[in-house]
């Protein structure tokens, strides 16, 4: 089995890479910054410096990874960009990076997967979205809107690729206890409800891919809380989510 993970140099992507390596799979990862990979760690993982926003570079990287392999069995996109933009706290550069990485990068990922897997007549694709993307309301953050777009893009490719024996699994997690999340919150995760450990997240995600689930939302408590919120009128949801974001920012 051969697995390639875009955005696999850190966080949940790297944890998934180590998981598949432990199962004896051929594993490749790519990212914009290879220095994120722990020094002298998992030397059997093939790493490539690649930006998902450049589809030609992504295709070239996949070809390099597969040069001595028959096919690509699993392709996962963990690449993503986050910036808090509630109450206008965001620069143009941050907004552009989120739009480019989370939307264009997702389309490039699926197109690269389609080109590689279509002739195989099989394969499993998975993309990391966010539980926040299941909510639809007018004043949701740009990050939330990009992750909702990821879910919709994945749904379109699920329909298009199913006739070719290719499964698409969308992962919509809540808060995962990664180093990046800790950095963004000055190592204080007290305001992150239903926090999931990385090892637990890896187990849930890999099982969902194995079972070819269409959409997986976790943890369960977060899933039902967000689904309950989605039933509220948009005007009320706007107020609740804005106040929630302000509360999380005020220490």
Could you give the topology of this structure?
Blueprint: E1 2-6, H1 11-22, E2 26-31, E3 46-49, H2 55-65, E4 74-77, H3 92-117, E5 123-128, H4 142-161, E6 166-173, H5 179-184, H6 198-210, E7 215-218, H7 220-229, H8 234-249
Parallel strand pairs: 1-2, 1-4, 2-3, 4-5, 5-6, 6-7
Low-confidence stretches are: none
Write down the domain tally.
1
Based on CA atoms alone, the radius of gyration comes out at 18 Å
Residues in helix, %: 40-55%
Strand order of the largest sheet: 3-2-1-4-5-6-7
* Helix-strand string: EHEEHEHEHEHHEHH
| Percentage of residues in DSSP E strands | 5-15%
The total of beta strands comes to 7
Pfam family, one: adh_short
Organism: Chryseobacterium culicis
GO molecular function, one term: acylglycerone-phosphate reductase (NADP+) activity
InterPro entries: NAD(P)-bd_dom_sf, SDR_fam
Task: Walk me through what this model shows.
This protein has 251 residues and is of the alpha/beta class. It has a single domain (2-249), classed as NAD(P)-binding Rossmann-like Domain (Rossmann fold, 3-Layer(aba) Sandwich), CATH 3.40.50. It is built from eight helices and seven strands, in the order βαββαβαβαβααβαα. A seven-stranded parallel beta sheet has the order 3-2-1-4-5-6-7, sandwiched between helices. Strand 4 (74-77), helix 3 and strand 5 (123-128) form a beta-alpha-beta unit. Helix 1 (11-22) packs across helix 6. It is globular and about 55 Å long. The protein starts with a strand and ends with a helix. The model has no long low-confidence stretch (mean pLDDT 91).
